[in-house]
TrEMBL record:
InterPro entries listed in its UniProt record: Calcineurin-like_PHP (IPR004843), Metallo-depent_PP-like (IPR029052), MPP_PAP (IPR041792), PAPs-like (IPR039331), PAPs_N (IPR015914), Purple_acid_Pase-like_N (IPR008963)
Calcineurin-like phosphoesterase domain sequence ranges: 118-313
Cofactor(s) annotated in UniProt: Zn(2+); Fe cation
Ranges of residues in domain Purple acid phosphatase N-terminal: 16-104
Catalysed reactions, as listed in the record: a phosphate monoester + H2O = an alcohol + phosphate
GO terms, molecular function: acid phosphatase activity; metal ion binding
Keywords of this entry: Glycoprotein, Hydrolase, Iron, Metal-binding, Signal, Zinc
The family this protein is said to belong to: Belongs to the metallophosphoesterase superfamily. Purple acid phosphatase family.
EC number: 3.1.3.2
Protein name: Purple acid phosphatase
């Protein structure tokens, strides 16, 4: 029988809103998170390798939070460590109560010749689920989602109705429980509402979602790095301080030299607010961060930058714009083969396949089309190992 007795009252402990993310720098750990309502329930995650009878255990912690007149359920986070690469694991939450079983695949050991497929998605909300359905139905089968921010849009409801965070967690569970989503925060995660006494930015996000920020030396969960397969992925925070001397600036300055392009040839950056955006919508909002960091991106030959925020799709050529020095008047984007391709994907989409060390196939699918229709495709050529001009190669 599931559930348990507490002071004569039968309490049903249901474990839901299950989601996983990478739990370390190298891809050998997974953070499992879930929520129980009413009672705390078990903190334990049971896990085992496919075809193995050896059941392993990890113990996590839980917490609750209040936001205005809302009180959250018990939010559990449990890190499973020392996993083997390229292995299917099953895991179970709700141990001893309402047990629920899921599975995930660990990535291959980071290296240049390990194909891997990422999905890229952002600004998902919960108005309709076409984006997620298209992603799930795509025959190329993404293995990890790079999520570029704006989760539930709870802040657009009266008093930032945090029940919307719960409904979003339920909505995406069918994906987040089975493959890691790499979290980037957007403006809709700020939840800064002094008018109702909520003065701590990112409170719901920080309680509900974990990132492996400490393993890359970051002091906050909003900016961090991971290696996954052939990619080194840097996640930046558009809504945390980033100017000179700030923690994010100091961290990023030290992060670039750590990237070993022989081990992880693909250097990808995620952020919420795009640097290059020709839409009227959110025009120039990413400009100040661009001014701060763009020289580093070009110097370190970032391959691609994914952003959300703008609810549309846009892909730049390889351009840069940092020659301006107050007196020379040079302030326009110029072609630059050391610069990343900037992709705004606030409408959902995917990056499919890193099949060799020097090429990555990228495809974007519009929600109004089926997954068989490519809205935009490109072969990205690696900026370190094969930095040829690929900017206008849009019909490979
Ligand atoms: Fe946004």
């Amino acid at each position: 029988m599931h559930g348990r007795q507490e002071t004569g009252v039968f309490i049903w402990v249901f474990n839901e809103k299950v989601h996983i993310t990478q739990g370390d720098l190298e891809g050998k750990a997974v953070i499992v998170s879930w929520v129980t309502q009413k009672a705390r329930g078990s903190n334990t995650v049971l896990y085992w390798k496919e075809h193995s009878c050896e059941m392993l255990k990890a113990h996590g912690k839980s917490k609750t939070y209040k936001f205005y007149n809302y009180t959250s359920g018990h939010i559990h986070h449990c890190t499973i460590k020392n996993l083997e690469y390229d292995t299917k694991y099953y895991y179970m939450v709700g141990v001893g109560q309402t047990e629920r079983k899921f599975w995930f695949l660990t990535p291959p050991k980071p290296g240049p010749d390990v194909p891997y497929t990422f999905g890229v998605n952002g600004d998902l909300g919960q108005s309709f689920d076409l984006t997620l359905t298209h992603y799930e139905n795509n025959p190329l089968k993404g293995q990890t989602i790079l999520f570029v921010g704006d989760f539930s849009y709870a802040d657009t409801y009266p008093n930032h109705d945090n029940n919307r965070w719960d409904t979003w967690g339920r909505f995406v569970e069918r994906s987040t429980a089975y493959q890691p989503w790499i979290w980037t925060v957007g403006n809709h995660e700020l939840d800064f509402a002094p008018q109702i006494g909520e003065t701590k930015p990112f409170k719901p996000f920080k309680h509900r979602y974990c990132t492996p920020h400490r393993s890359s030396g970051s002091t906050e969960p909003f900016w961090y790095s991971i290696k996954r397969g052939p990619a080194y992925i840097i996640v930046l925070a558009s809504y945390s301080a980033y100017c000179k001397y700030t923690p994010q600036y100091m961290w990023l300055e030290q992060e670039f030299p750590k990237v070993n392009r022989t081990e992880t040839p693909w250097l990808i950056v995620l952020m919420h607010s795009p640097w290059y955006n020709s839409y009227d919508y959110h025009y120039m909002e990413g400009e100040t961060m661009r001014v701060m960091y763009e020289p580093w991106f070009v110097k370190n030959k970032v391959d691609a930058v994914f952003a959300g925020h703008v609810h549309g799709y846009e892909r730049s050529e390889r351009i840069s714009n940092f020659a301006y020095n107050v007196v020379n008047g040079i302030c326009r984007p110029v072609k630059d083969l050391s610069a990343p391709v900037y992709i705004t994907i606030g409408d959902g989409g995917n990056l499919e396949g890193l099949s060799t060390m020097t090429h990555a196939y990228y495809g974007w699918h519009r929600n109004q089309d089926g997954y068989a229709v490519d809205g935009d495709t490109m072969w990205l050529f690696n900026r370190i190992w094969n930095p040829i001009d690929d900017s206008s190669d849009d019909d490979s």
